[in-house]
Design goal:
alpha/beta; 250 residues; 8 helices; eight-stranded mixed sheet
Length: 250
């Protein structure tokens, strides 16, 4: 039976990942700071083991104990938009490098336990981040490049997304026999149910003209990557873009 460790399970996409994994009969471990934020339908499910704690406050040894025995790690970690009751301020709150540090810790933990078979690492990113290997077909205009440079300079969550993708692609790479990875780059997030979606191998357009994809579809694709061997074989060591096949008209 597949066993998956989920990071960020109390977030909007993370809760959907937990829900869909449990519906698939997967054994799930979830590290969350506030377990009480999870629905009781999750916490009462015997297939879910909830680990209370802050990932960045864990040592690699402790994280390794939670990774031990897992087939995959799914990270939906991200930065809160709001800081307490103050809207929008959260994007400048610490830690600025949450996703990058968490990614490094996951890979260090996997290397530490030396699994007999490689562990899959599925990381949630954003379509605004270019594939570091240069394979994206979309060529950014001078205006878009200036916008990207500005976001990198002043928006810590975007900087963190770029650095985490660079870390996975360039430092972990494709030669580590213990770690296999996919970095999922959704287009514009919207609410909605699981529906038909399209997975692309490259950015198709400027980031500010985003197509839409439901959070449920993002979760579905990440679950497929963790559990479906054919899906994993197709997207392993890649940074796929995911969009809804049928775009909203309004």
């Amino acid at each position: 039976m597949t066993r998956v460790l989920v990071l960020g399970g109390s977030g909007n996409v993370g809760k959907l990942v937990l829900k869909q994994l449990l519906e698939r009969g997967v054994q799930v471990r979830a590290i969350v700071r506030t377990p009480e934020s999870l629905p009781s339908a999750f916490t009462s499910n015997p297939r879910l083991s909830v680990i209370k704690g802050s990932l960045l406050h864990m040592g690699v040894d402790e994280l390794a104990s939670h990774v031990q025995g897992c087939d995959a790690v799914i990270s939906t970690l991200g930065h809160n938009l709001n800081y307490g009751r103050i809207p929008a301020i959260g994007i400048w709150a610490n830690p600025h490098d949450l996703v990058t540090k968490a990614s490094q810790m996951v890979c260090d933990a996997i290397n530490k336990i030396q699994p007999a078979n490689p562990i899959k690492f599925v990381l949630l990113c954003t379509v605004g981040v270019s594939n570091p290997d240069g394979s994206d077909k979309h060529v950014r205009s001078r205006f878009e490049r200036s916008m990207v440079s500005l976001m990198y300079a002043i928006l810590p969550p975007y900087t963190d997304s770029v650095r985490s993708a660079n870390y996975i692609s360039q430092q972990v790479g494709t030669t580590n026999p213990l770690i296999e990875w996919t970095v999922v780059r959704p287009d514009g997030f919207i609410d909605g149910e699981v529906s038909e979606y399209t997975v692309l191998d490259s950015i198709q357009h400027a980031f500010y003209t985003a197509d839409k994809v439901t959070r449920a579809n993002i979760a579905h694709f990440m679950c497929e990557l963790s559990e479906n061997p054919r899906t994993w074989a197709e997207w392993r060591f890649k940074m796929p873009i995911i969009i809804d096949t049928h775009q909203p008209t309004n």
